[in-house]
Design brief:
- With 136 residues, the chain is an alpha+beta fold.
- It is 51% helix and 15% strand.
- Strand 1 (47-49) and strand 2 form a beta hairpin.
- Helix 4 (83-90) packs across helix 5 and helix 5 (98-110) crosses helix 7 (122-132).
């Protein structure tokens, strides 16, 4: 464990407080699962929060180009998302493509191309999707 459970809990709560996530929402089963994933990522040192409440995710498995050089080593998720940003990100996603919709939200939150996010390792994607769940 890189970060203490106390610090991880404080970080998650500070982020949720900044986002005005009500206690009722925090108590929901799905939200608790996302909180747990975020908590463990913080404890393991793969997720931090900067002074602007952005979550910074250090990828466990950076995305590499064809020569094996990293093209994506971290994702920075902003804490707020405008409706227009969501609409733009979802523009080419079919309504029955749940994975594509989640990836579009992640793209809007971190400013990375959705195609590049398709190359995330599944463990890195779990953390990303846990953050995204707070914007649905």
């Amino acid at each position: 464990m890189v970060v203490s459970e106390r610090i991880a809990t404080e970080t998650v709560n500070k982020w949720m407080d900044f986002k005005n996530i009500p206690a009722r929402k925090r108590a929901e089963k799905e939200t608790k699962a996302s909180i747990k994933t975020i908590f463990y990522a913080i404890c393991d040192g793969y997720l931090t929060m900067d002074d602007n409440h952005n979550f910074v995710q250090k990828l466990m498995s950076p995305v590499l180009d064809k020569d094996g050089k990293p093209v994506l080593a971290q994702l920075i998720f902003k804490p707020r998302l405008l409706l227009g940003e969501v609409e733009d990100a979802l523009m080419n996603v079919k309504s029955d493509n749940g994975i594509g919709m989640l990836r579009a939200y992640a793209s809007a939150l971190c400013g990375q191309n959705s195609g590049l996010l398709r190359k995330l390792d599944t463990d890195d994607n779990k953390t990303s999707q846990a953050i995204v769940m707070f914007f649905l």
